[in-house]
């Protein structure tokens, strides 16, 4: 076919995991350009946050997203704590890191599992999801829930880990390690994976910087930026880990970065369980939130998460706003998709691990 025509995809499509809408200009089966249309699942959550008090918003922000649900309340709590000058107990900071890294492992395994499904490797997809169940068991055993953990509160955490639970988590991590190594080996050697993902959806470093992408998308394009290292929060400065990055900037690189990060997360959890001191896990009483404004940021599974809070001295925020990783990453699809095949569109979209519920809040 010699002519160029427009192909609408979304907002609901059997091959896409999120409700995104594209106007794609194609020539034959090759994508020439695309336009992104957003806003299909807007929920007005920032407005809701200004109608609830500070403690109620801990619950609300955890429902912004599912796969990175713990990152939202923990970052929100950090913003409140920065404004009020609240010192979080050291043990609680370690416990926050554990919750964050448990969610990171589960999120990354979900993404690489879906990627296997999109290339037609369904046995690997089912295996990755089966391995992810190990972390789901940790969530259910430690927090009592498989998705929203309810771990954070302003000034600390709502759960603790005793010796028995410590042993339970360590056992699950030991069970997980060989599976992560196996999946990584498949992703680096399997001909089907390599053919469908290598050189597909390339985002050069210059374009990554131009779009301001974050998280594994940025790190796979040669930008070794991780908030946990750049501006450490909680107890990350006390923990030993490397920033995982690559230079090829394609779908394959983004998968490998996530798998290596999952391995690092296992180590981070083990370090926390080993180093965590005794002591309180939350404030003895709630502290009044003064008038003013504050920010906080963290490294969510998809990248840098940023919260802005403004208070007028009442018990509800005057303004609460968050900027999520997908907001920074999805514009870069214009570069990643240009020149790709129509069949690769779902694979490239999945490689940025989009969270539309986070972005269209």
What report would you give on this structure?
This protein has 361 residues and is an alpha+beta fold. It has one domain: Cytochrome-c3 Hydrogenase, chain B (Orthogonal Bundle). Helix content is 48%, strand content 13%. The protein is built from 15 helices and 8 strands. It has a 3-stranded antiparallel beta sheet with strand order 1-2-3. A 3-stranded antiparallel beta sheet has the order 6-7-8. A two-stranded antiparallel ribbon has the order 4-5. Strand 6 and strand 7 form a beta hairpin. Helix 4 runs antiparallel to helix 11 and helix 4 packs antiparallel against helix 14. The radius of gyration is 21 Å and the shape is globular. The mean pLDDT is 94.
Lay out the secondary structure:
Layout: E1 4-9, E2 21-27, E3 30-37, H1 45-49, H2 54-62, H3 71-84, H4 90-118, H5 122-143, E4 152-153, E5 156-157, H6 163-189, H7 191-197, H8 205-211, H9 215-219, H10 227-230, H11 251-275, E6 292-300, E7 303-311, E8 319-323, H12 325-329, H13 333-337, H14 345-351, H15 356-359
Antiparallel strand pairs: 1-2, 2-3, 4-5, 6-7, 7-8
């Amino acid at each position: 076919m010699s002519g160029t025509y427009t192909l609408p995809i979304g907002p609901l499509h059997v091959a896409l995991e999120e409700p995104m809408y594209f106007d794609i200009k194609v020539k034959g089966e090759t994508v020439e350009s695309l336009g992104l249309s957003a806003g299909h699942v807007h929920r007005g959550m920032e407005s809701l946050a200004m109608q609830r008090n500070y403690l109620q918003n801990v619950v609300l922000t955890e429902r912004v997203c599912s796969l990175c649900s713990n990152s939202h309340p923990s970052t929100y709590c950090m913003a409140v704590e920065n404004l009020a000058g609240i010192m979080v107990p050291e043990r609680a900071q370690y416990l926050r890191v554990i919750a964050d890294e448990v969610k990171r492992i589960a999120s990354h395994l979900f993404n690489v599992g879906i990627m296997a499904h999109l290339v037609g490797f369904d046995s690997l997809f089912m295996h990755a999801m089966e391995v992810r169940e190990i972390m789901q068991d940790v969530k259910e055993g430690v927090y009592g829930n498989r998705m929203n953990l309810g771990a954070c509160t302003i000034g600390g955490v709502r759960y603790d880990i005793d010796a028995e639970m410590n042993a339970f988590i360590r056992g699950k991590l030991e069970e997980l390690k060989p599976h992560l190594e196996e999946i990584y080996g498949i992703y680096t050697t399997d001909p089907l994976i390599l053919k469908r993902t290598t050189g597909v959806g390339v985002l050069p470093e210059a374009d990554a910087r131009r779009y301001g992408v974050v998280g594994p998308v940025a790190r796979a394009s040669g930008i070794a930026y991780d908030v946990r290292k750049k501006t450490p929060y909680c107890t990350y400065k006390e923990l030993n880990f490397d920033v995982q990055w690559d230079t090829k900037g394609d779908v394959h690189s983004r998968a490998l970065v996530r798998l290596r990060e999952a391995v690092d997360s296992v180590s981070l959890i083990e370090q926390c369980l080993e180093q965590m001191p005794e002591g309180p896990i939350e404030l003895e009483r709630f502290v009044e939130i003064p008038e003013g404004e504050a920010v906080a940021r963290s490294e969510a599974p998809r990248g840098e998460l940023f919260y802005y809070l403004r208070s007028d001295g009442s018990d509800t925020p005057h303004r609460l706003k968050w900027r999520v990783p997908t907001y920074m990453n999805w514009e870069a699809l214009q570069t990643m998709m240009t020149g790709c095949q129509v069949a690769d569109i779902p694979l490239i979209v999945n490689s940025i691990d989009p969270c539309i519920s986070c972005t269209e809040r």
